[in-house]
Amino acid sequence: MYVDMPASELPAYRSSQVDPDDFDEFWAATLETSRAAASAVRIEPVESGLTTIDVFDVTFSGWNGQPVKAWLRMPKGATGPLPAIVQFVGYGGGRGHRLEDLFYASSGFAHFQMDTRGQGSGWSLGDTPDPDGTGPQTPGVMTRGIDSRETYYYRRLFTDAVRAVETVRELDSVDASRISVFGISQGGGIALAVAGLVPGLAAVAPCVPFLCDFPRATVITDGYPYKEIGDYLSIHRDRVEPVAGVLAYFDGVNFAKRASAPALFSTSLMDSTCPPSTVHAAYNVYGGERSMSLWQFNGHEGGGIVDVERALEFFRGIVGNA
Asked: Low complexity bias: where (predicted)?
């Protein structure tokens, strides 16, 4: 059933989320510190048994120089700089198995799939720890380190994601001017954060994005993972306003305002995990050219493979073929 406002009202909706005065300074300092701590990238070929795709095990420097894993998948024998897609993963998942997610490499792109620190094992494999997890939290990562913006989990994860794009830009096999970012659910929220923090992206495709419009999302749905924040605040009753202040630095609405790359969003009217108004909260203030796939009879699965297919067509329309 429909879980949110009707489709006719979504284009006019605006979030109540605040825009912290020092938002840009906070993120500039965060990223610069991690860049300064970076070490050399390690790229090792992996035996996959595939005849059309080469797979590489990548270790790059993310938050505070900490090692983060990724898969790099390339069309076998590709020469010359390729357009690239950097993909971020949904909640609870990691970079997965080396033989998963072959779609974009099979389509001629360099495909860089970032692992998700401290996640994995919920529904796909993960190989990157989160050594800085701290403080009381509910199960999951939504309240990990939520006592301050400095310690909040998504500060580390969003920094990893920015560093992933910066790592891909340095690869000889990639055309640095043709890098796009893609993700579904949490991955879509991470893609939005990257779009607001990294200039010069070719395109962005956040599908049914999570991590948008915390003021509304945390009260309009009982669905997890947003409900983790509600669970935490039901115990820490005196932390409502401080937590809201922290989350403002990590909200897709505030990143969307700062983004400029062309974007293809998707949302579903029956999505109780990431309600459509929360997605439109970011979409309606997005700073670049944008379009929306609105699925009337779907939940959090969104358009499924059709979202992926449309993202490929969208990317090719901007960066061309390999």
From this structure: 126-140
